[in-house]
Amino acid sequence: MRTILILATLFFTINSFSQLEAANWYFGEAAGLNFNSGIPIPHLDGQLNSVEGSASISDPNGSLLFYTNGNTIWNANHEIMPNGEGIKGSSSGSQTALIVPNPVNNTIYYVFTTDDALLADLGQNNGFNYTVIDISLNNGRGGVLEKNLPLLPIGSEKVSGILNFNENYFWVVTHFRDRFYSYKVDENGVDTNPIISILGPSITDFRNGRGSLKLSPDGTKLAMSYLIQEPKYDSSLFIFDFDATTGIVSNPVEALSHRRAYYGLEFSSNSKMLYASGVNYNRDNNLENIKVIQYNLESANFFSEGKVVLDFQNNTGFFVAGALQIGIDKRIYHSIPNARLSVIREPNKDARLTNSEKFTVDLGGREGRFGLPPYIQSFFETIINIENYCLGDTTTFTPDGNNNITDISWNFGDPDSGALNFSNNIIGEHIFSKAGIYKVVINVEYSNGNPRQFIEYVDIKPAPNVLTEVELVQCDIDGIDDGITSFNLEEAIPIFDNGIENLDVFFFDTEANAIMNQNELSPLGYRNDAADNIIYAKVSTGLECFSLIEITLITQPMSNLRLYDTLYICDGRFRDNMIIANLSRVIEQLSEDFGDTEISLYINEDDALFELNQLKLEDYSFSASNIPELFFRIEEDHDCAFIGKVELVVVESPDHEETKLVYLCDGLANLNAPDGFDDYLWNFGIMQQEITVKEPGIYDVVFSTGTCVYIQTVEVLPEIGIEVENVIVQDFRRNNQVSVILGINQSGENTTFSIDGGLNFQESNVFNNILPGLYDLVVDNGCSIYEEEIIVGAMPNFFTPNNDGFNDMWTLSNSSYFPDYKVSIYDRYGKLITSFRDGQSGWDGRYQNKNMPADDYWYHLELIDGRDIKGFFALKR
To answer: Which UniProt keywords are present, listed alphabetically (predicted)?
Structure first.
């Protein structure tokens, strides 16, 4: 069946696909990019929020038409299109949607939406569907004519498309289980009867449906990845042949997984390189780094020769490696959750020359996620080889093979060049008027197909403005004064670079080799063959446009100082058999000898010679049992002057009070300097760690090890006696307590307390559970003694008035110490039974000459110090 769209006033034209249909991207968390200038500029007006998939489309001039997250469609004003909700895609699908224009009617677009593997695993299948949009509706803002027209009841998350430009129709390809479905889209709409290619792989578990499908821009290849998640991580990565005439997929070639779960895919614009993103996992099925791999499809064994171009730490444990998508600038972009995208700037080149950069494409504060919008891959095809990007050179544009081209016209996008801005030669040649990015438009006519328009962005750069002649002076450490030594040629870069960052620098032994880019020198360890030898550096900002620098290699004679000195670090820290030292102390001591020079430190002599692995100065740590020798390099104006070695002695900084107070005790004070040092000197000439003084005063001691010198000041104060501010007796309780409160100037250090006249001492100033009685309090601080007599009062807890001579009378204990007291006794009902005073004998247990029953009774004790004490006791028979 073929769906045919008929409109009453429909106007058909032959569409001219200019590649600018992919000029505007919307993806992630309201992120977007505008490629119309040739440089991706952040869009800050997007409305979609997508974990993975999205899609967008622009007109042939690069103006945004609409975009979608697979569920909702927004127009160019970022408004939801009429009937644009409830689309059966998914924002968590790898490639949730693909937008395909009608090849003849330039107002009609088809949005193909894919299934969601997670929903399908739950039995909630969206299937593979398409939605029809007429962009002429709603005053040119577009509207949805029909939506969710079914193609497959169940599908995968994969879709890609390609133009058959000979016959002017598109193929839209998806995959499910073990077969490919190729749907033709021509002027009549979508042919719902697909071309089916059954050749695997067979993926039946919906949970393993993530991954990508991409057709090559020239329409000859198809790549597909499946991220296998269950029952453990695995991967399926294939490349196939694709016939853009028949829609048939054939000739599968499978990649070894290399314990890598593949996800994103993309072809270079010349269709010769395939890139795949994948998360590595180890033998224990634990996730590791995310990598982007390049496969050169012109190699016979391309899958076994993959080369890493981007490598990311995977600290958050992502198992999805992120989408790859080519832009109209022919660069390939990569997205994982971040406020920046990574980029492969020159994907048509070998991995070493791709100029790949991590997280350099700014999204204007918005966040990318795991997906990027896919497009018809024909939008990105390159049929031109471009050479010479240097300002002032003739840039040549050579068609790749004949390709049945009958006519070609060039607009170099350089109006300042006048009539030279245009050409009709098969090979385009142009000298650009100034540095910058130019949009070159190429209109091509073929003998066997429709006309096509191609766009190439050309970045014309000036030669780097660097010094053309420099000297590189190296130290000679082999002991032979012959002008021969080993160099790290990269040390010349900061001499000639004029502060330009990100230069590509290569070294050659002759100027001819530098120009021809052959016989490149290894910069590290290069050994000159004669004094004042000359080599050449080829310097560029992208390999194409370069400057040549003549470097004269000069050897500094007699520059090896060998073992120079033993230096002390006086503020080391010792932790668990490790020493942590501040190496700036070494620099400070060397500066006393070498003055205003550049001094750097290294762990071995080769590192010092080649300026590799320079040691950080702060918190340098090493084993306490293996204190290293350090090598230093002295430079004057980037010239190596000396290389030498120092031995270290690290002294732990003493944990001491710089000023402390000591009191005389019994007329003496013992003064002790910190332990562990070689020499001690007190300010009156005594050279020992410990001294005894008899007079108050200020005493300074200098203690040292090697050149590490420290000082401590001890102030000796007169002896002070013990000052007791108060003794608090909490008595007349079942658990009596005595607390000794020292004066405000008493530290309590070395002070002990006794309540039995000094027979037993304790460190606490509080005595608990004290029986009633008379006590001799003693406070001793080692130098002075304080004594006081205290009384602890109490009332008996019970008495037994049975005339046996024991506890027959209830009265105040130690009553002689509490003159003029008064005691009142009450029964449990509050009735006064009796009272007695100081001098009276107490209560005998009778009331009105009758024995009171055994029971609890209450008392009220009144003392002349104003205390009212209440309690109870028991009468027992």
So the answer is: Signal
Res 341 pLDDT > 60: yes
Spatial distance between the Cα atoms of 693 and 668, rounded to a whole number of angstroms: 6
State how far the Cα of 137 lies from the Cα of 81, in Å rounded to an integer: 10
* pLDDT confidence band for 543 (50 / 70 / 90): low
pLDDT given for residue 809 in this prediction: 93
Verify cis geometry, omega within 30 degrees of 0, for the bond prior to 415: no
Tell me how far apart the alpha carbons of residues 155 and 743 are, in angstroms, rounded to a whole number.
88
Q: Can you give the C-alpha Rg of the chain in angstroms? A: 46
Hey, CA dihedral for 478, 484, 488, 492, is it positive or negative? positive
Pairing of strands 469-475, 546-556: parallel
In sequence order, which residues have a C-beta less than 8 Å from that of residue 864 and are 6 or more positions away? 818, 819, 820, 821
Residue 555 and residue 474 in contact, taking contact as beta carbons nearer than 8 Å: yes
pLDDT band of 9, cuts 50, 70, 90? very low
Which is nearest to 366 in space by CA: 31, 86, 631? 31
Say whether the peptide bond before residue 201 is cis (omega within 30 degrees of 0).
Answer: yes
Strands 850-851, 846-847: parallel, antiparallel or unpaired by DSSP? antiparallel
Q: Write the DSSP string, 149-186.
A: EEEESS--S--EEEEETTTTEEEEEEEETTEEEEEEEE
pLDDT at 8: 31
Asked if 693 contacts 668 with a C-beta cutoff of 8 angstroms, the reply is yes
- Placement of tokens 């290399």 in the chain: 258
Q: Pick the closest to residue 113 from 73, 78, 148 (CA basis).
A: 148
Question: In terms of Cα–Cα distance, which of 641, 646, 643 is closest to 607?
Answer: 643
Alpha helices in 96-216 (DSSP H): 117-121, 137-140
User: CB 150: neighbour CB atoms within 10 A?
Assistant: 12
Alpha helices in 382-510 (DSSP H): 493-496
Q: What is the pLDDT of residues 222-239, one digit of tens each?
A: 999 987 777 777 778 999
* Alpha-carbon span 694 to 718, nearest angstrom: 10
For 55-106, how does the pLDDT look when each residue is reduced to its tens digit (9 = 90+)? 999 999 999 999 999 999 999 999 999 999 999 998 888 899 999 999 999 9
Q: How far apart are the first and last CA of the chain?
A: 116
pLDDT at 690 over 90: yes
Cβ neighbours of residue 469 closer than 8 Å, sequence gap 6 or more: 549, 550, 552
What is the widest separation between alpha-carbon atoms in the chain? 145
pLDDT digits (tens, 9 = 90+) for 267-300: 999 999 999 999 998 888 888 899 999 999 999 8
Torsion of CA 39, 40, 45, 51, to 10 degrees: 170
CA distance 480 to 494: 28
CB 611 within 8 A of CB 601: no
* Beta bridge mates, 143: 134
pTM greater than 0.70 (yes/no): no
| Residue 597: both structure tokens together | 């020079």
Q: How far apart are CA 713 and CA 660, in angstroms?
A: 7
Residue 479 confidence (pLDDT): 80
Mean predicted lDDT score pLDDT of the chain: 90
Are 335 and 343 spatial neighbours (Cβ–Cβ below 8 Å)? no
**Two structure tokens written together for 402:** 């004949």
| Predicted local distance difference test score (pLDDT) of residue 402 | 60
